[in-house]
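Whether sequence alone determines local backbone shape is best considered at the level of individual chains. Part of our work consisted of pairing the sequence of a single chain with a tokenised description of its backbone. This step matters because it turns folding into a mapping between discrete strings. For completeness, the protein is quoted in full, as a sequence line and a line of structure tokens:

_____
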Amino acid sequence: MVDEAAYRRAQAQSSPLPCVFRAALLARQAGCELVLRQALAEREVLACSQVTAHLNCETLERLFLERATFPLKLHPGAPLTHGTVMRLHCGGLQGLQQVLDAPEPDVHRLVGLAQARHGSLVQLPWERIVAQILAWQPRRRSSPPDT
């Protein structure tokens, strides 16, 4: 059994810039050319290799949350459940990919493309992105085989 406090300390020391969209990356719903993967206590830890990219991803995540708070009926300041984080990250990145007509969901490339085409992340067509956040559903587990 792993001491969770010790794990958190080791994680903070080994990856000072944890990947903002690690939930989507670990679920294989997106990728990133800047991600650093590392094993720590039999878990996969994802970190960002560039400070600027990390800040851009934090901004995008805040915008996903800000724009989808009312439609998802979230309470501002309340902790987010894992399912809500997955919906924000996976649905938001899927929506961004569709809005930009990008061939693949690479987070760093999507952010760069969004900034190049729209000037800033704030200027994106948020109605379409939020619609994808609302529509996103997790993959269904396969049913156990009949014996």
Summary: The beta strands are 35-40, 43-48. The mean pLDDT is 88. Helices lie at 4-14, 22-26, 51-68, 82-100, 107-118, 126-135. The first helix runs from residue 4 to 14.
